[in-house]
Amino acid sequence: MRPKDSVSYAAAIVAAGLLATAPSRLSAQASQTAPKSSDNEECRGNGCAAAPDAPVAESDAGPPAKPYDWKASFREYKVGKVPRLADGHPDMQGIWSRTTLVPMERPRNQDKKEIDAATAAKLENEAQQKQFDLRTEPTDTPPGEKTTDAYNTFWRDGYWFKVPMSSLRTSQVVDPSTGRLPPLTLAARVRQNRAAELDNRRATSYEDRPMSSRCIQRPGTPGPAFNGSGPGGQESTLEIIQGADTVLVRGESLVSQVIYMDARPRPPADVHLQLGSARGHWEGDTLIVEYTNFPGADGGRRHLTARYKLLDANHLLFGYTSDEPGTRTKPYSVEFVLWKLTDQEQLVEYACHEGNVGLEFTLSAARAKDREEAAEEGK
Fold first, then answer.
1. How many distinct structural domains can be found in the chain?
2. Which of 106, 108, 255, 268 has the fewest CB atoms lying closer than 10 Å?
3. Domain membership flag for residue 225
4. 317: Cβ–Cβ under 8 A, 6 or more apart, which residues?
5. Dist. CA 43–CA 41, nearest whole Å
6. Which residues pair with 169 in a beta bridge?
7. Under a CB-based contact definition with an 8 Å cutoff, are residues 236 and 157 in contact?
8. Tens digits of per-residue pLDDT, 103-150?
9. pLDDT under 50 in the chain at which residues?
C-alpha cells in the first residue's frame, strides 16, 4: 500500500461514504500519463482484453521488422523540464512507483502499438473500480467467493490510487516487435516445471519451506531488471539515490542494487553475485547500466543492459535489454514509465517479519492434518 498514513485515508473514505469519493491526491499523481502519440484501440493493461476483431499477432518469436534501436525508441517519449544535480546530470532521486496498466506482453488479438488517451483514462477508472468491487483477494476459495485468509485489497496497489497507463503502449515488451517475450528454452521449461512441482507439493518438514515464509527473500523481488506491475500487486516502489561514484536503487522489499559509476573493474568471471555486477555510465541524459556475473549455472552467459531517462520531474523512463541464452531463445527489450510519489519522503518499511506467524501456523496446521489422518486410519 502506498499512502503514508492508512488511518487518515481510511477515515476519509468512510466519511465520504464507503469509497464513493474521488481518488486522493496520490491518485491524481498516478494518473498523469506520460505523453505519447496514439492510435484508437483498447487494451486493458495487465488484464488485457483488446477489441475482438483485431488480427492475431504473427508469433511470439517472430523476427522484428528492424533491429531494436533504444535511442530511437526513447526519442518517441516527450521530454519536459528535467531537474538536474550540481554536476549537470538529471536528478532521478526520489521514491518511484513501477505500477502501470501497460501489460508486460501485447494481447494476441491486439495489433496496435498504442492506444489513445481517452481509452487509457477509461481503463484506469475501470481498474480501480474492480479493486473496490473485489475488496478481498481470493486464494483457494471457489471463483466469485471471498476470503479473509490473505492480504486483501486494502493492502494492494490500485485500491487507494489509480494504477496508471503510464504510457500509451500496449505492451512493455518492445522487442520483438510482436510485443511478446521470446519462447523459453527447453532447459528453462524443465526448470519452470520443476519449480512448480516443488512449490505445489506438500512440504516434508519445516526446512522444506521457502525462504519467503521467514521474510528472508520474496519471490519475484524486482531487480535487476524490474518490470511494471498492475493492480493487486504490492511492494512496487523503489528509491533512487545518486552519489558521486555510485547510484543506489533500493527496492521496497529487502533488495538494493549498487551501481558503480567509477569505472572500477568487474569481479572475476567465476564470481557470481545475487544481483549481478553493475557498472554504469552516462550517455547524454540517459544512465546506462551493464550487468554481468549473475548467479546460477547459466549466470555467466547472461547479460543485461538497463537504461534510465528522466522525462520530467515526475516521470522516469526505464528500459532494458536482456540476453539470457539459457532461458530465452533470443534477446528481448522492455520499456515502461515509472511515476514519482511526490508526497512520500521515504520507502514504506518492509515490516514483513514483525508478527509473522506464517511458519508457526503452517506447522500447527500440518500437525492438525497429521492427527486427522491418524484418526482416519484408526477407524
1. 1
2. 268
3. yes
4. 34, 74, 77, 307, 308, 309, 310, 311, 335, 336, 337, 338
5. 7
6. 114
7. yes
8. 999 999 888 999 999 989 998 988 888 887 776 554 554 455 444 445
9. 1-61, 64, 138, 141-142, 145-149
